[in-house]
TrEMBL record:
Record's GO cellular component terms: membrane
InterPro entries: AB_hydrolase_1, AB_hydrolase_fold, AB_hydrolase_sf
Top-rank taxon, per record: Eukaryota
Lineage: Eukaryota, Fungi, Dikarya, Ascomycota, Pezizomycotina
Residues in AB hydrolase-1 domain copies: 42-318
Molecular function as annotated in GO: hydrolase activity
Name of the protein described by the UniProt record: Alpha/Beta hydrolase protein
Length: 329
């Protein structure tokens, strides 16, 4: 994997990792008339306070089969740190800029300038799934050959209106005004007053073996995992994240999911500290209501937590490749 970048319409630099080099669009193409290596792209989208580094256990296996791209969302990782843009819709607009950039780069591999045949299958983890649902609502599904949604319910907050959404379905820790404000305060701490504890709390919430899954993990491995994820979260500006959190937790994606018209795989962690299984399964139920979606929605439940791609990478990698191969070949 190597880092590349593109620029959004508001001049934010988006960093992303790619398993294949991207040609410089301003230079003449000296490659083959068509390079099949760029035909299918698995696009990995990380969650809140994460980065593309989250997928360190997935890159090798996935890229052995397909082109893999993993961006750092704005405000995360090595991407730009704008004063604004702390909205899920802004992240969706950024994703559209990245998709256009990838298509242009793949098309550049064709000497005759024909449009790229690249088929993109995004894998949205946590807020990454919410970004994809917002993308569908704003721009439709035409840019994608399928979707994989990982451990995210359509709505984080509880509500009694519009069909109801209660504790059986909503986020387990941030689900109303009071809990959202508490979470914001935690993310806006400084290093001197406990910000590291916020990062550590996230790890405890997201790793299934910390919640009793029974996975055999040594004390040394557990400490190394915590240090890995804490270091990634520490790259973010907590105040910016706090504002993104307020936007993210209020979004209701239920109707948007019903607009999906391409094959969909929903993955859930049985030991997730973020969402009850029932809330995540609502994603599949909503997707099945989409036009022509009968027989195109699958569910896979892992014996791990929110970061199931990290805890059960072999199974995750295998199931993603099988899904992509089935629906793109």
């Amino acid at each position: 994997m190597q880092y590349e970048s593109c620029t959004t319409n508001d001049k934010c630099i988006l960093a992303f990792q790619t398993s294949l080099p991207l040609p410089k669009l301003a230079t003449p193409n000296i490659g083959p008339s068509h390079d099949p290596a760029y035909d299918t792209c698995i696009l990995l989208l990380h969650g809140f306070s994460g980065s593309s580094a989250y997928f360190t256990r997935n890159f090798a296996a996935l890229s052995a089969r397909h082109w893999v791209v993993a961006p750092d969302l704005r405000g995360h990782g090595f991407s730009g740190r704008p004063a604004g843009g702390y909205h899920v819709a802004r992240l969706a607009a950024d994703l559209r800029a990245l998709v256009a950039h990838l298509r242009a780069a793949a098309a550049h591999k064709n000497r005759d300038g024909t449009a790229s045949p690249v088929r993109i299958v995004p894998v949205g983890c946590s807020i990454g799934a919410a970004v994809l649902w917002t993308y569908v609502e704003l721009f439709g599904c035409a840019d994608f050959a399928g979707f994989v949604f990982v451990d995210q319910a359509p709505l984080q907050d509880r509500t009694e209106a519009f069909g109801g959404w209660d504790k059986r379905l909503c986020h387990t820790g941030c689900y109303d005004e009071a809990t959202m404000l508490s979470a914001q305060r935690a993310w806006m701490r400084t290093a001197a007053d406990g910000l590291v504890e916020t990062h550590r709390g996230l790890v405890a919430e997201c790793l299934g073996y910390r919640r009793g899954s029974g996975a055999a993990v040594s004390a040394e491995e557990s400490k190394a995992d915590e240090e890995f994820f804490v270091a990634i979260s520490a790259m973010c500006d907590g105040r910016w994240l706090a504002r993104l959190l307020a936007d993210h937790t209020r979004y209701d994606h239920r109707e948007a999911i019903e607009l999906i018209t391409v094959p969909t795989l929903v993955m859930a962690g049985m030991w997730s500290g973020c969402f009850p299984l029932e809330g995540i399964l609502e994603t599949a139920r909503r997707a099945e209501k989409g036009e022509g979606m009968q027989g195109k929605v699958d569910v896979s439940v892992f014996d791990s937590g929110h970061w199931l791609f990290y805890e059960e990478p072999e199974r995750f990698n295998r199931e993603v490749v099988e899904f992509v191969d089935h629906w793109t070949t």
